[in-house]
Amino acid sequence: MDEHPEPVLEPAVGALDPRAELSEFLRTRRARLKPEDVGLRSFGRYRRVPGLRREELAQLAGVSVAYYTRLEQGNGQHVSAEVLDAIAHALRLSDAEHAHLTHLAKPKRQKRKPAARTQQVRSHLRTLLDAMDGVPAILVGPRSDILAWNRMTAAVFGDWAELPEQERNWARLVFLRPRYRDLFVDWEHKANDVVSQLRMYAGTHPNDRQVSALVGELSVKSEEFRQLWAAHDVTEKCRGVQRLHHPLVGELDLRLEAFHLADAHEQMLLTYHAEPGSPSAEALRLLASWGTDATRAGAGMPPTHTA
What we know:
The protein has 307 residues and is of the alpha+beta class. Helix content is 45%, strand content 12%. It contains 14 helices and five strands. Helix 7 crosses helix 14 (292-298) and helix 13 (279-290) packs across helix 14. It is elongated.
């Protein structure tokens, strides 16, 4: 199953380097495994590198050490799907990690420039968001950009209309705005999800200069972002329970669901709903009834209601 991979093309100026990304991703996945994790005997107490050695992984994947070494150095443009499958299996990759590995090793040529920051939001989608009056709903675009939201979203997360357009971005909100550390009960989990999804996008759009600029900005401004980005974790998951601490109603346990749009796959509709009859459902009902006061509290501002 051995092959002779050829070097990839040089990345565009200002873009992420797929060769470096592939190299670091394979290194970090190899480092998290021990020989005993994959059924190999570990000889000696001291190992020069954490995790599996290259020769151990090559043995598991059924390729030569020289071939795997070239691949881990980023020379994998013409590697076959069969070899990638074998390496993914040897590394115990998740489905999302397997897909990410494929994107890095066999990047698709982009026929057009990446989407601009300002994306078009169809009027019918805005109408749909407004109609979901009791459920926070958000339209999110590439690079975790927030494109549109409804009144309940403003009541829960804050009114992003007050922010400059370029600041309406989940990564910037989570890492650069301190109040979101208080809003998310498990901030570390939210931060890891944001970075993992951004990494997944970057793997499929290595020439997107805007995502490269975003990563560069956050790496300079946030040590926590820099550490999470260096971990090379990826996920496509965007669902589960989101626990929040709202300044007016206290804790909210909301179920997050995500839906890709059929005619704009890089846009997602996110909804947050509470279990019927639960305290969180009652809290959402109260926020809806308070209107502007709830929105001001969601934005971290004192409510004007005094009754």
